[in-house]
Each structure stands twice: as structure tokens, then as C-alpha cells.
Amino acid sequence: MELLKRRLSIAVSLAVLFFAIFSVRLFYLQIYKGEEYRDFSERNVLRVLDLPAPRGRVFDRNGEKILYNKPSFNIRVFPKEITDAEGLAQKLAEIIDVPEKQLLKKLRKIASLRNFYPVTIAKDISREQLLLVEKNKEVLESVFLELGHKRFYPHGEAAAVLLGYTGVADTEEVKAYRRIKSGTMVGKTGVEKVFDNELRGTNGIQYIMVNAHGKVISDSLATLLPNRKNKEMVQGKDIHLTIDAELQKTANDALGNEKGAIVAMDARNGEILVMASRPSYRPEHISKGLSPEKQKRGRKKESFSLFNRSTQGTYPPGSVLKIITAFALLEEKTMDPESSVYCPGYHLINQKRLNCWREEGHGHMNLREAIVESCDVYFYKLSLKLGVDRLYPYLKRFGLGERTGIVLPEKRGVNPSRTWKRKHLREPWYAGETAMLAIGQGYVTTTPLQVSIMTAAIANGGSIVKPKIRKTDEGAAPRITGAAQKLDPKSVSFLKKALFDAVHGDRGTGIYARSKVTSVSGKTGTAQVVSAQVESTEKRFQDHAWFTSYAPSDSAEIAVTVLVENGGSGSVAAAPIAKKIIETYFRLKKERNETRIAKSE
Amino acid sequence: MKLESPNLSKSSWVLLLIFLLCAAGLVNLYSISQLTGLGAFKKQLVWVLVGLLTMAAISNLKPLTLKRYSFAFYLGFLVLLALIFVFGKTVSGSRSWFQMGPVSLQPSEFIKIGIIMVLANYYGSEMAAKENYNLVELLRPIALLFIPTAAVIAQPDMGTAMTILLIGSSIILLLGISRKALLRIIIIALISVIPAWHLLIKDYQKERIYSFIDTSSDPFGISYNSIQSQIAIGSGMGYGKGFSLGSQSNLNFLPAHHTDFAFSVIGEEWGFRGSVFVLLLYFSIILFILNTATSLNDRFGMIACFGIAAMFFWHAVINIAMVTGLMPIIGTPLFFISYGGSSTLTAFIGMGVVLCLKRK
After folding, report:
1. Model-level pTM?
2. Yes or no, beta carbons of B237 and A30 under 8 Å apart
């Protein structure tokens, strides 16, 4: 008992000791250092600013800026500093176009975050709004104006689909990109998306202390948070594209209100000069706010303008495909190209009648004439002799049903075969389907870009190029894709002659592409959307119009592929557009040469 | 049940201390209500009233009754602690709460009283009296201490587990432990530190320890709180900024200012005189309990009183050391001052036990 009492007295002294220790500690904090801490507490408002890095600029092949930034002001609020949400909502509602009630709800939610990171209330405010915020600075203590960067598209709709747009990273993107904070702007589609890593840059961070009136107090942060260093923001990298902005604009205007796509590339090396897709959209509408769900749907849905028809649209190629069929016939020596086949305007396969586009028939046709006049019967008859199994590898060699290797999102289309049909439709292949395939109808679908690459291969003497939209230092040598070896020069030169005649011959289907500026070679295509039995004048049942071409005919520089959705005849609807682009290309080339010479003098 | 019962009036001056502390706590909650509303204040008021009644009720029991039911008391809370893992509610990472309508209870607070009572009972008989105990003799009490501790660690609630261990160890030290046994325990503890560090201590807790050792490792998340608390207390200077005028507290720079950092609010608003006054009240209560222990003539009462003194002592030491920046941040409430039903009730039960034993 006595022992316990003795030990209890030790406990008493321990308690007294700790009381003394704490008293001394309190004396130290409150009396000795009190003034210093008082000072601190009065200016104790920490702000963490993320300094948004401007995204890299995008240039066209001639060094013209086609996507850059303009300064914009955003209204942001510091959650911890909201003391009077009602008052703030009332004041802000007078400045920005949001109902006070809604604003109050948002501010309350923000205030509950209680952290140092500002939250954006309004983006890209007008000059008038900016002045109002500045004028009411005293009242808007928790508000701060952020100098942001908004994307500016000098060519508006013309390149909008290709360039894509940016938006605040969603949760999936935050996860996928790593090292980015939520709230960062990332590319959502097009060039903005595929080169996002380079374009994005790194946001900076700035830690500042402000006093109760929002005035910045320097240095105090170093004492309080010695390890929190400000981080400089790193500007995004610039990207140089192979696109020719002027030509892109021409293409966009040429399509006008039609739906469709235009691809123009340097036939020698696959550099894309034009990649137009209509309908397009006004970039400023997107940045002003399109709900994320709507965007997501829009990127997939074909009728929507965010969809890049050049690479993501798949269409039956129609007669454009006869170029490959003809190549296969030549290579497989199915017939003597000079020997004639009679076209009565139709062909019967197992009692089923397949029509030629020319009801009265073409009469006697050899291969060259069949290409020039686009005779269907010639290709029906000989493709049946050739067979689908021998046609399929040629379509594959030209890249049908395959990825082109472009960095943009793309569809592969369909290159049908017996195996394909068995797998997808669980049905055997019928002879009539070979005939349909030979003229680019039936199951086969392609993207305009694929057709353009096929055309470029003929134009450049047989190389399948890998399309590229980014200018690199690799030089102009064509990069041949995959397993596709060079095509046989003899067959290629035969086709070149035929494609020249298709534009320049008296009976050619591509005469509307004939130009005084340069020689043009090309092939029309009029692809049926629905089977011929449906008689309708409705636009969506009209044929797709194709024209794929290159110029000059003998030493091709540019390959142009035009697709007009439901445009009708390729000869009438598509060929003139291709001509316009080819002529603009040479006009621009001449003008640029002249200015260069003028400058050097 | 009447507060004027003869039993309580004998200790009226300690009742005054408790009143004053509770009042300080309530004033504090009222003062910071601008941001959080009066909800916490009202709830705490109810808890204080419930606590006073509980204290009065317990103090009217016979000391023998307390002794007889100590094991049942312990066991009951142990069962509650186990039930947490079935019905418990997780708050900020720890599964420590029972939610019943507007009331939430934390059995890990109450178990402290249970442990004190069961240890006092175990060593309370005159026959058990010894100068020093060896390890084997201490095995059962250590087990009684470790079972609830393990449950609390599993929640995980390291702050509470630590106070439980400190209270238990204090009692064992009071009883006396042979040097050999002490050495062995220290060795065992040291050996188990490494696996415990890897298996039991959560990352955020490690960060707290790191950040205390090196204040610059993450000034934002963790020692930021400590710094803000020191700024709050320090800026109170001699006389404080005045009721509800604490800018640190009311602009919410101070985390958990109604619970674990309540003392910082007092420091800021009432200055050195206010905080030392509260400190004085607190240690007076501890001294009162220790004095009661010394005045008693049975071992059970002495050990039980000492245990309750230890409970108040360690809560005060950890909390105040934490808010004044002498220790890493470990969530521990300051009895009577911090908002919280379970801790308030536990403190009142403890005082009830002391007053009951004092009656002889």
C-alpha cells in the first residue's frame, strides 16, 4: 500500500512536470513568438495556382499557322476563401451569364472543397466582363482572373475535323495519360488528339500567399513551406503538318453543302496535302461547350460533323475499284488486253441479270476502252473468269481492308473473300458476287484515304505509300507499307495510259476533270447505295459520286480523291471538284515560286 | 441522481472544474459555429447533460458493485468492439463507429474504462500485492490489455490504440514490474516494431511520422496542419483575438477545429491566459484524481483511480503536445473540450468512478 502511494507521488510530480512543459511551450508560442505568428495568421491565405501551359501551335507545310492560341480570361474562385457565398453569387451573376441560384449552388459546392486550388467559374469572358471583375475586385476577394489560352482556328471549318478540338480531360483520359491533373486540357479528336503528348506541354504551379485583400505577399511562403517550389510551365511543342492550308480551304469550299470527303496527297511520298470532310463544324462552337456525351456520340456517329469521313467513312468504291480489277486481270493474264468483249448492256449470271450502267450497251470493248468508258459488262465477264480467290490478293496489295498506317483514327473497310463471307455471314460465295466486287459494289467498302493511296500507287509507278500528315526530316522518299511490294511497271503503265484516256479521250467518263493547266488522269465511280430496284429521288438513296485522279499524268505530283455522299454520278458531281483542286494546286505552286524568286531577287 | 447528493457536494470543487472545462468546450463550439452551424454545439450540449447524469448515477453506486461488475463491464465493451467489424461505420478510413440515427458511438473510447477496471480488479486484492511482478504474473493482464488493443489497431485507429497501451502500461508500472520482466517486454516490443511498421501502420500514418521528423517532406498534407495549429495558438498572443474572432479557426485553416484541434481555437481566441487556464483546470482534475487515489485505503480503488488519472493525463499530453507541435498529429480528443459523444461520455464515466470510489 505504501509502495503504491510512493509511486502515486511520482505520478503527481510527472503531472506537474508536464503542466510546466506545456506552460513553457505555450509561453514560447504565444508570448515569445506571438507577434510573429499573429503576423502570419493575418496574411495566411495560401493560393496554389496552376499555370496553364499554352498548347503547341500547328503549322501547315508552308509554315502558315493553322492552329494557335489566343489569350483568354477565365474567372476562377478559391474555395477556401469563400466567406459569403450568397454575396459572391449575387455579384458574379451581375457579371456572367449564369442565374444567381445556379451560381450559388455551384459556389456552395466549391466552398465545401476547402482547398487551395482554384475552381473555374466562367471561361473566356468578354472584355466587358473582364473590366467588371477588375472594377469589383474589392468585393470579389476569393475571385481571381486567370490568363488562359484558347485555341484559335484561323481557317475555321475548313480544317476543323482534321485538326480536332480540345477539352478538359475526363477521368479515363486522366488515367490513360498519367502525370496529368484533372482539369488539364487534352486533345479530343484529330491532330489535337494524336499529337496530344507533344502539343500539351506541362502546366506550372505557383504557390503564393496573399493577405486578406488578395494582395500577394512574397517570400512568406519560403518560411512556411520550404519544400514547395514553384514550377515553371513548359509550353507545348509545335507541330508541322504536311497539309496545305490554302488547298484545304479550296477543298472545303468545293464540297460546300455536300457531305463528303476529299483527300489530296503528294503521290510520290504520301504526304497528305488535303484532308477535308464535310459537314464540318465551327470550332468556336465546340469550345463554347458541347456536353461530353454529345461529343462522344458525335465522334462515332457518321451523320455528325466530328466524324472524319476521309479516314473513318467507309463507302462502296464503285467503278473506282476497276483500276485494281484491271490490274489483277493484267497480272493474272486472264485475257489479251487487246481482245474485245461484247457489251449488250447487261450480263446474265445464272438467269440473273446484271446491268451495265449504260443500258444500250458499249458494244465491243477491250480493257483500255472498258476502263475509259467504265464498262461494267467487260468486268463482269472477265472477273468471273478470274474468280474471287485471285482477285482478293490484289485488293489486299492495294491496301483494301487494311490499315493505311496513318496516325489518325481510321477504319479498314471490307475486302471480301470466301473466308470473310463464311466468317461474317456464314454463307458460301456466289459467282454473281465476284462480278459485283469487280465493279466495286456489294460487300466491298473503302475509305477515301485508301482510294487515294491506290491512286497514288498507279501515279508514282507502283509504290504503296504510307500516308503521313506530319512533316518530318525523313526526306521525300516514299515509304512503302507492309508486305506490299512494288507493282509490276508494265501493268502500271498500261493503267496510266487508260486513266489518261478516261479524262482526255472523247468517250472518257472523266472529261469534266480535263484541265487547261495540266494533264489529269483519273477514274470515276458511281456507287449504288441501295439496290437498283428502289426507285427514289430521296437524297439519301442517291449514288455516291467518286473521282480519283492524279496530275500531271506523266510525272504525277498530286493525287486527288473526291467522294460526294449521295452526289449522284461521279463524272458530274466529283470530277469537277478534283479538277478545281488540281488547278488550285498548280496555281499555288506557281504563285509561291514567283514570290520566292521575287524575294530572292 | 441529484447533483446535490451529499456524495457529490463533498467534491464540489472538482465539479466546478469539470463545469468550467465543459463550458470552455461549448463556448469554443459556439465560437466556430459561423462556418459549421450550431449542430455540433447542440449535440455536445446534450452529451454533456447525458454525461453529468451518468456521472451522478455511477458516483452513487457502491464501490463494491463497481469491483464486482468490472469484468462484465470489460467484456461488454469488448463485445461491442468486436461487433464494430460487423455493423461498424467507416469514417476517414477507420471502422470505429456505430451509427444509430443521429448518435454515433465509438466503443474504443469506452473500452479504456473497461481495461482500467479489469486491471484494478485483477490486482486489487490484498493477496495479489507484491513489490514487483515478473513476466509470468503479468501475462494475464497483458492479454487483457492486448485483446482490445489488437481490435482497435485492426480498425485501424492508431491514436486510440496508443492511448490504450499507454494507460495499460502506466498501470503496470504502478503495480511494479521486475527489471527482468521490463527488459524482456522492451526486447519483445523492439522485435515486433519492424513487422508492425510494415504490416500495421498505414501509409498515411507513416507519412505523419515522417513529416514530423522532416517538416519539409510533405508540408501540405500533414505538417501543414501542425503548422497551422501552431500559428493559431501563437497568434493568440497574451490575451487572444477574442470570442469568435480567430481568423485561423474561422477561416478554416485549422483542420478538425471542433475535435482534435479544439485547444488551438482556445489558444487563438483566448490567448496565453485562456490556454494556460484550461491547462490548469485540466491538470487540477488529474491531481484531484491522483490525490483521491492516495487518500484511498484499498488497492482496487487506488489502481482504478490511478488508471483514470492516467487516461486523462495521456489524452491531455498527446493532444496538447500535438497541437503545440511537440508531437506528430495523432487524432486524440481532449476530454470535455473536444466535440464528441463517446469521449465526453467516457470522461464523465471516469469521473463517476472516481467520485464513487472517493465515497468509501
Report:
1. 0.62
2. yes
